[in-house]
């Protein structure tokens, strides 16, 4: 079941001249119970209004006053808390680097109760234009309705980039941009019309990335900062279901390798260093200078019998972008053997300071692991630690950085244990992480309570993504695919 919170209808938001004044309130020394919990969060100055609902016992009216250090205050009085977008953005802009104070009063049984005011901090760090994510129902046997969507973070506008209704029987996944730049995009499509969509500066190709020398089609893409290469993994996977309800599904590697795609020559570059029979290699990610390839590696085990013994380390290998060759040594940054845990989804910040990863008990499919948490690796100090500011008692999993490395988005099941929703947190110049806030919605409780899809693989984009749906459909339904050659590197 989804969470149980009372909802009392929309009602009209009254103008200040028509509002019912808060008279002789009883003062409470606690914050109000609101959904989502936006108390004491740090937000970018361009974020959409953080509308919220007061939860708990029934009430007749709610009154909210938002006061900044500068500018005019906001006042909402009605049944829900919904701020005017232009007024909200002006108040945030006027108070960059300062805080806002929210005073919430609720009328119950004809009497007003006023709660302790809570702060919200307006960061000096800007955030990117928007997010791109997949929305998918948490089913496993068949493809239900799914799609990849982009969301303007300054408003509530969401539009589809590609949906599986575009071509029958299609599954879309594994989308990736180059450091939040929308002009380079890779999307993997499965099904009878499968292939890898690659769009560079408006030019669209559909690739057949499966070759006789590789295990599978390419998945889990990560662009080289130059745009000249894309790292992929090729995985022979199988899916299994747990017998206990706390552990729902597992996706396991029977074998996995890492390859590098060179779009200019339509070549897959392979190396024996990343195609070992005694290891599973997956989740590649280039460093911001393009000279290091991070990835996850586990000692190969007999599957599925030993799936709980498969634990991935965080590793790295040198990469030369001038000629597409690799170093001769693999370094282990976080040892699965020493930690007794498993690393997945390494994501370096674009300023080269940190690398964020997910840590779980075993395997690499941490999306359904309740124990999965986010960890940070300090690349300068070569130390790593849990990000306590954002972790919860439920799953924290996939994550990505904003282009300026001062924000990150991650998926979490903390809300109801079933669906992954998106949260955003800030990182200051000293590495301090702020309390995360849930992706804003116009009517948050109504939206999330009625949502039957999980957010998946979020990534930032600096500007809107432009993709021609008719061209995508035409290229997918045609049988022609660009075939790839394989070049072996040392």
From TrEMBL:
InterPro entries: 6-blade_b-propeller_TolB-like, WD40. PROSITE patterns: PROKAR_LIPOPROTEIN (PS51257). Signal peptide: none annotated. This is WD40-like protein.
